[in-house]
Amino acid sequence: MKTKAICSFFVLFAIVAGIVATTPAAFADHSEVTIEAALGSGAPGCEDSAEGCYIPSTATVDAGGKVIMSNPDTAAHTFTAGSPEDGPSGEFDTGLLMAGNSFEWSPDTVGEVPYFCMVHPWMQGLIIVQEAGADEGGEADGLMVTVTDSQVKGGTQIDLEFSELHVNYEITATQNGKEIFKETAHAMEMTSSHMVNALGSDKNPIDIKVVSLGIGPPGAEVNWTGPVGTVATSKVVPEFGTIAMMILAVAIISIVAVTAKSRVIPRF
Ligand SMILES: [Cu+2]
Predict the structure, then answer these.
(1) pLDDT digit string (tens) for 24-41?
(2) 0.70 cut: is pTM over it?
(3) What is the whole-number distance in angstroms between the Cα of residue 70 and the centre of ligand 1?
């Protein structure tokens, strides 16, 4: 049975090796953070925007630090800990914050505090309270990126998993000392994927490097927080191995089962 025949018949992926590289990154000052109600958030719509209704919609602060909640909008808003579904949780409540006013809250307990606007319940945000100085000195809790790869038809798929939402990053792939892929991206979710094509049929390892550019809405660099710098490197070998063949076999069987059930004629 020839490997090549199987590959050309089945447009399928197989996981070759879960090469995992995690490197804690350093530095970000979370002793004070300012959150603003988004302009125009008195009308629905901001919840579907990249920025959200509170900017930043996810904010990180040290326990014992300071959160400044401010309202530059023309409408009055509240920053109320809790959720529209469950109501106020009691951690903080700005009360009705008129245009141009602000409120300060100093969290003392590590954890995640969701909040919302009592007047406009589509406005929701999250404050992450972390141990003071948690990501200084690269010891713990910085931005982490997990790099895994899978071989897909025609290339290698690089999957990234971040420890935070809204990471802006640059990913580069180098093979034989040559840059074969470079992209600047924003991960809306905690995961993202990129297709990297090896040089021809080259089986030499590909070096993947992920550099954090900051955390925040795409295009709003001035508001980005979080660590900036290299957060992960990983080596990927573009080659089918024994494990891959076993997984491929399982995948083929399940695809056949699925297509038989749904009566779709497979196009091979
Ligand atoms: Cu509001």
Answers:
(1) 333 457 889 999 999 999
(2) no
(3) 12
- Identify the domain containing residue 157 by its residue range: 11-26+141-244
User: 160: alpha, beta or left, given left = phi > 0 and alpha = psi -120 to 50?
Assistant: beta
The C-alpha atoms of residue 92 and residue 105 are separated, in whole angstroms, by 7
C-alpha of residue 191 to centroid of ligand 1, in Å: 30
Distance 123 CA to ligand 1 centre (A): 6
Interval between CA 53 and ligand 1 midpoint (Å):
8
**Phi then psi for 4, rounded to 5 degrees?**
-60, -40
170 occurs within a structural domain:
yes
Distance between CA atoms of residues 139 and 163, nearest Å? 15
pLDDT of residue 136: 47
- DSSP per residue, 197-243: --STT--S-EEEEEEEEEESSTT-GGG-BS--EEEEEEEE--S--HH
Q: How many separate domains does the chain show?
A: 2
Do residues 22 and 102 share a domain? Answer: no
Three-class SS of residue 99?
coil
Measured CA to CA, the distance from residue 217 to residue 163 in angstroms comes to: 16
Distance CA 40, CA 34 (A): 18
